[in-house]
Records
---
Amino acid sequence: MKKILVTLVFAILPTFTLASGGSAHLDTMSPDLADQPSLQRGAATFTNYCMGCHSMKYARYERVATDLGIPLDAYEENLIFSDAKIGELMTIAMAPGQAKNWFGNPPPDLSLEGRLRGPDWLYSYMRAFYADPSRPYGVNNAVFKDVGMPHVLADLQGVCDHKPEIGAEPKVDSLSGRIISDGTCESFSTEGSMTKAEYDETIYDLVNFMVYMAEPSRMESESIGKWVLLFLIILFIPAYFLNKEYWKDVH
Ligand code: HEC
C-alpha cells in the first residue's frame, strides 16, 4: 500500500510543478501560421535584431524562404547578413564561451524556443523589459528576472521606466468602458519609435515566426488537414447515393 502511495505521489508531482510554472501571469496570443505576411515580418525582425546573438541551427534558410513564400534570391539578398549560402543552416559566428563572459549566460539557440517556452511566454517576455540601473545592461525583465539579455528592441519600444504588470487584468473606465491600462508599459524613460500597438504587433509577428520555426511541419499538416476534410466531404456524396441505391429495394 505504502509503495502504491509513494508511486502515486511521484506520478502526480510533475503535474503540480508544471502547473506552478505555467501559472505565472502572462499575456496571451494565438499564433496564426496561415498568416504569411506576419511570418515574413517576424523573420525580418528576427534576422535584424536577434541573429547577432541567437542561432536557429536546426533550420535551413532555404526551407524558411520556401515555407514563407519568399523568393530565394530575395531572401539571400535581404535576410542573410553573413556569407552563408541559402542552403546552409541558420548558425551564427558568436562563440558560446565568449558570449558567457559578456552576458553571464550564452544566448541559447532559439530553433525550438517556440515550443519550449510557448507563445504566451515569448509574447510576454519580449514586452516585459524595464529600466533597472542595478543590472549590467541597465534593464531587467518582469517575466525573466535578472535576465542576461539586453533590451535589443529598445529603439522600437523605448525603455519602460517601471516594472510592467504583465498578465494583469485590464483596468476599465466604468463610465466609458474604455481600457485605461492593461498592465503593459505606459511611461518610458527613453522613448521608442513605435506606438504601443505597433510594438505589440511587431512582437506578435516575431513570436508567430518563432512558433513556426519550432515546428515547421505543422504548417504543412494544417494545410493538408483542410484537403483531407474536403476529400471526405466529396466522398460522402457518392457514398450517400450509393447507400440509397442499395437499400431502395429492401424497404
Ligand atoms: C546582444 C545579444 C542578444 C541579442 C541581440 C538577443 N538576445 Fe536573446 N538572449 C541573449 C542572452 C545572453 C540570453 C540568455 C540570458 C540568460 O539566460 O540570462 C538571451 C535569452 C533569450 C531568451 C530566453 C531563452 C530561455 O528560454 O532561457 C529569449 C526567448 C530570447 N533571448 C529571445 C531573443 C529575441 C527574440 C531576440 C531578437 C529580438 C534576441 N533574443 C536578441 C542575448 C541576446
Note: The chain has a mean pLDDT of 89.
---
Amino acid sequence: MELAGKIALITGAGSGLGLATARAFAREGATVMINDIRPEAAHAAAAEIGPKHRGTGGDVSKEAEVAKMVDETLKAFGRIDILVNNAGVPDSFVPTVDQPLSHWQRLIDIHLTGTYLVSKTVAPGMIARKSGVMINLNSIAGVIGLPVRTAYSAAKAGIGMMTRVLACEWGPHQVRVNAIAPGYIMTPLTQGLIDAGRIDPMRIRRRTPMGKLGVPEDIAEAMVFLASDRAKFITGITVPVDGGYCSWGAPSDAFPDEMMQAD
Ligand SMILES: NC(=O)c1ccc[n+]([C@@H]2O[C@H](COP(=O)([O-])OP(=O)(O)OC[C@H]3O[C@@H](n4cnc5c(N)ncnc54)[C@H](O)[C@@H]3O)[C@@H](O)[C@H]2O)c1
C-alpha cells in the first residue's frame, strides 16, 4: 500500500480521471474526500469506493464554496495530506473571434482560478505540518498548441507555471506540487467531444506514437506514484501521460496505418 493512512481531497472526482484516481488512492490505503460540483455524483462515488470515504459538493471557482469543502474535509478527517486539483470542463471549440468573453472567463475561472483557490486554501495546513502533496491537472493542450481551445489551453499552461511557482514557494516547507498532462483519455468528457464530432478518435490514434487513447487508470497510476513517498524528491514538474503525443514532431502519422488495420 503506497498511501496507507493518507487523507486525500480530489476535486471533480464524481467522474472520469478524478474518480479513477479516487479508486486507486482508496486501493492504496488512503481515505478520500470526493468533491464535485454535482453533489449527488460526489456522494455516489464516495459510497461506491467504501464506507470510510466522503463526498462533498462545491464549485472550485467560488472562494466561499472552496472554504466550505476544505473545512468539511478537515472536520471529517483532521488534515489533508494529498490534494488533486482535477475539476474541469472542456472548451467549446468555437473559433476565437466568435467566442463570447463569458466563455473565456468561465474556463479560466474553473481551471486556473479553481486550482489557485483550492491550493491556497489547503496549503496552510500542509505548511504547518511540513508535509503535503498537490497534483494539478495540466493537459497536452497546456504544452502544445491546439486551435480553437484558446481559454482551455491558456488555463492549462497557466496551471503548468503555477505548479512550478508553488513548488518553489512551498518547497522549503516540504510541500510538493506537481502536475500531470494527460493526452486523450477515454472519459465522459472525451466521449462528449467525440459524440459532438469535435474530436476524431481514429485521427488521434494516428497522431499518437502508442496508437491508442488512454484509459483513466493510466492517469490514476501516475497520480499514485506522484502522491507516494516514492516521488519524495520530485516537485515542480508536469509529467506527460499521453502515449508519446507531445513527443511526436515528424510530419507523418505517428502510428502506421498497417498497424491500425491490424488492430
Ligand atoms: N479526459 C482527457 O482526455 C483529459 C485530457 C487532458 C486533461 N484533462 C483534464 O482532466 C480533468 C478531468 O477531466 P475528465 O476527462 O475526467 O472530465 P469529466 O467531465 O469526466 O470529469 C470532470 C468532473 O469535474 C466536475 N466539475 C466541473 N466543474 C467543476 C467545478 N467548477 N467544481 C467542481 N467540480 C467540477 C464535473 O462535474 C465532472 O464530474 C480536467 O481538468 C480536464 O481538463 C482531461
Note: The domain at 7-196+215-250 is CATH 3.40.50.720 (Rossmann fold).
